[in-house]
Each structure stands twice: as structure tokens, then as C-alpha cells.
Design a protein that fits this description.
Helices cover 67% and strands 0% of the residues. It is an all-alpha fold.
Amino acid sequence: MIMPLTTTRLGPDWPCQVKTPGSYDWERSAAKWLRELVPARYASYPAFVRHPVLLARHAQIQVEHEIRVARTALQTARADLPQAGLREGVIEHTIKLYAAEVTQLQHIARSVRAVTRALAESGR
């Protein structure tokens, strides 16, 4: 049965891998996308399979943790990496990589929040 569209607005943070809320099988596409964001063992837990909102919650926590890790790596790279014997060019490249990763993870976190809101609305 196709549900009416929710009031969730699809913005630039809506992941392209997830169908529009209210469309056929959209919750399944959301769950599939969310499973890719968490360690495999979590994705198969029965509670997460039955309740995509729980999976979304865990994905949000996972991504927030990854943001903290990437920020720490970025903030400590200039001090720590020379001790590992790396050349300045490699260090600069690594710093750019960490900065890009933080930006990407922040976008993913916004996407997870958007999907979580839509899942919560559809469960009402």
C-alpha cells in the first residue's frame, strides 16, 4: 500500500540512495542505506531490522563518533605525523584528506537526521 507523502521536505541533505518518503518501499531503501553506515554486526540485529528508527539512531551515533575521530586525526596530524617519519608533502595531503572526511561525515550526519525524521513521521 502506498502511503501519502509525509510533510518531510527533501532538501540537499536527502541521500540519493533513499526513495522519497511515502513512495513504494521507501522505508526499505532507507534501512538499506542506514545499514551501510553501521558495522555489519549491528545491521543484522533483529531490533534494528524490525525498527528502522533504532537503526537510524545507531547510525547517527556511529557517524558522530566518526566525526570526532576524524577531527582528532586532523587536529593532531601536524604534531604526530612527523614523528612517524612522513614527508611534509604526505602530511599536507593527509591533513587535506582528514578535512574532506570531516566535511563528508557532517553531510552524512545531516542526511541521517533527515531520514530519521522521515522514519519517525511514517511510524506515527
